[in-house]
Amino acid sequence: xxxxxxxxxxxxxxxxxxxxxxxxxxxxxxxxxxxxxxxxxxxxxxxxxxxxxxxxxxxxxxxxxxxxxxxxxxxxxxxxxxxxxxxxxxxxxxxxxxxxxxxxxxxxxxxxxxxxxxxxxxxxxxxxxxxxxxxxxxxxxxxxxxxxxxxxxxxxxxxxxxxxxxxxxxxxxxxxxxxxxxxxxxxxxxxxxxxxxxxxxxxxxxxxxxxxxxxxxxxxxxxxxxxxxxxxxxxxxxxxxxxxxxxxxxxxxxxxxxxxxxxxxxxxxxxxxxxxxxxxxxxxxxxxxxxxxxxxxxxxxxxxxxxxxxxxxx
Amino acid sequence: xxxxxxxxxxxxxxxxxxxxxxxxxxxxxxxxxxxxxxxxxxxxxxxxxxxxxxxxxxxxxxxxxxxxxxxxxxxxxxxxxxxxxxxxxxxxxxxxxxxxxxxxxxxxxxxxxxxxxxxxxxxxxxxxxxxxxxxxxxxxxxxxxxxxxxxxxxxxxxxxxxxxxxxxxxxxxxxxxxxxxxxxxxxxxxxxxxxxxxxxxxxxxxxxxxxxxxxxxxxxxxxxxxxxxxxxxxxxxxxxxxxxxxxxxxxxxxxxxxxxxxxxxxxxxxxxxxxxxxxxxxxxxxxxxxxxxxxxxxxxxxxxxxxxxxxxxxxxxxxxxxxxxxxxxxxxxxxxxxxxxxxxxxxxxxxxxxxxxxxxxxxxxxxxxxxxxxxxxxxxxxxxxxxxxxxxxxxxxxxxxxxxxxxxxxxxxxxxxxxxxxxxxxxxxxxxxxxxxxxxxxxxxxxxxxxxxxxxxxxxxxxxxxxxxxxxxxxxxxxxxxxxxxxxxxxxxxxxxxxxxxxxxxxxxxxxxxxxxxxxxxxxxxxxxxxxxxxxxxxxxxxxxxxxxxxxxxxxxxxxxxxxxxxxxxxxxxxxxxxxxxxxxxxxxxxxxxxxxxxxxxxxxxxxxxxxxxxxxxxxxxxxxxxxxxxxxxxxxxxxxxxxxxxxxxxxxxxxxxxxxxxxxxxxxxxxxxxxxxxxxxx
Lengths: 314, 683
What we know:
The structure holds two protein chains of two kinds. Chain A starts with 31 loop residues before the first helix and ends with a helix. Chain A has twelve helices and no strands. The radius of gyration of chain A is 28 Å and the shape is globular. Chain A is mainly alpha-helical. Chain B has four domains: 13-229, P-loop containing nucleotide triphosphate hydrolases (Rossmann fold); 260-333, no CATH class; 355-572, Rossmann fold, CATH 3.40.50; 587-670, no CATH class. Chain B is built from 24 helices and 24 strands. In chain B, helix 17 (470-483) crosses helix 18 and helix 18 (500-513) runs parallel beside helix 19 (530-547). Chain B is globular. Mean pLDDT of chain B is 89; it is low at 1-8.
């Protein structure tokens, strides 16, 4: 067999050697920390994110400041006549008992922002754990929990929440819902939704060879789930968290509206609307401004969620 | 129809100083740096180069379909005399419909999974004005043309109901349906088995001749290019560094990059005990890097000052042969990047075998079906020995590897290591047993956790398998990184900042952390470029020499298997068809299946043997053929005995076992001549 002369195969004269030893690392153009910085920069620079963040931040400041930063005391200051329309002194007008609606709307941020983030966190933590277990073990574990998840999702949120809250406050006089109870209820309601998202991400991960490699060094299931797989499904979890946060705000307001939330004279948005919506033709400002507050916070959080999702998905 | 008939003199494709840039993070980064080439009508032109060289970008620019951030910044592209870059809207659609077709690497994603094949194929004709019945008849004819025996039934199926080879035929049928003046094939056979690849290549050649289409054939595989193309262009960092007739370039390369590429390929029966493979040091420059001099200067053993300062021009080095190198006349004296000293690895056949497989079998159960993926494989492996596993996909190579490791639980038979029988289930194996058998996976992206640093991976493995922690573990991790020739700072890197070859080195370091007795290498280089492959193969040989590890080496690349293996096992449908010393298996007489496999591989050295085309696909393991499982495709089919009786695996020569009814002496006689063509089996 004839071989071309250029190849230096066996039997050909040995050529001199010039380069030997360790190759350099790949050109560090796309270093991970640099990529992370770029990702964050990309999020922070997006106009949708800026609008969302500014509005959310505004409500966070209101929630922290509470009665200290409102022009009037949201609960105790009362002016006559009640239901007076917006003026320069009281830009959002006056409510039924003559309280400044502007002050009450600002102060109302607290009860929502006390509950929504904590409830989201609870739901995401429990949902991620459940999703990891379902996706990792598959088989009967997945089947059993999967049916449970379906069952919970089949019940409308508001029905589920009222059932649980009524059960939790059984025995006490009337309805008396604490923030903790709200957090737990919303957290439970979110768990199956988060679990589904995380499960599908885990299903894709667990077939990758690094999981087999972990098994080939005698790792136990919890280690593989939480140390090997979890960091790789953080993207979907973060996206889910921001999306859920918006829904949590909405859920808190809805529950307060139907009476399961802070009770009067609390300045909570949902209970303000519930309290006065019968009079909306008489004094629209007492209902519309709290409603706009809810809408602005939900939309702001969704703007943030959209940006995060877009950047993490591409 | 097009300008074709009017201007017979124009080339099918001509690129003039084409420059293409991608806009990444606000900056234009140049990927194609002034490529000029011309493909005559009916000519086939090959474009080779490693990944990232800009091959696919060129192809996309030709169909004016660059990604949104990509742009042709200079130069011109003409197809059949028409300026492609000026086309917009309707004219562009018409151009793509009539003049140019493209076949992509993965036929599975080139078709719409939710539409029947018939509808997708008919669309091509409907778009050009055919009515429903005419489109149907023409679809049937198009499938007949690509040798699909039962076109009506294929038209009714969904893409996922076809095998990879069949899908690619349908895609080729679609591409040629419009009689384009230019057909672009972008790695059309890379995902296919060698046997199927051989068939598809044959088909492309035949159709090209019939349709008188010009072909731009993009591939990283020089063997395929050699079989398919008359002329070839070598692309490096977006520049055409060498161009000329294929046979001339392969025999007489005049650019150091081409010379280096050719030296990386294990060929001509090269084996590890006869010499090392040469490698190409360094890395492809990142896209957009400023390259004032020669693009190859950073990796070139011949580079002088002038190479850094001055861009070489195209030197005419032969008839129709150009090289863009200042020292083209010295290219072939390029010094080796790796010494050629072979490593001698003694095989210890004295004591207990390291690994003994005794009728190891695995049957998967799926929806009531039994799929016998592995049907009783027996083999032994000595310390320091390498067993190569070859066979088409679906032959059970990976199942065998995973069963012996315990990732997949065997249903019958046993695995013994140093005389101890291991439990079939990984969870029941002791730490020592787990540590003694390790694996290097095919795809390092999947095998390494993206979120963990190299240090963390290695230290965790050391802690679990070698019970080494603390400072000792740091030292050992450092040692491992040295062993696989990674720089120290690789320890704190995450997989993302490593190149493909470096990731595979990390995976190898991890496999060696627990001081294994046997490492399974499951296609460890098939996801890598040839220059990186050569370095990884050299590394595996070095490690085997210093650590006396045994390998089970799985690869579809027979040249690679031959280079590394002491003995070779040929699998078909989960059965061992042939087992013997590497040289014996590769030289006649061999099993008819081995013979077919060997003849299917396109080699850089040209055709050495008559080609045997294996008809059809590998049968389903759920319903294997009776008698000899290979009888449905066997080129040396005898008759009833093959259909009714499964031949036993018998030792036909010293250490050489085979499962065939034909006596060895007759095979030796038969294989001196190619077999008579066998009628094609129905789809």
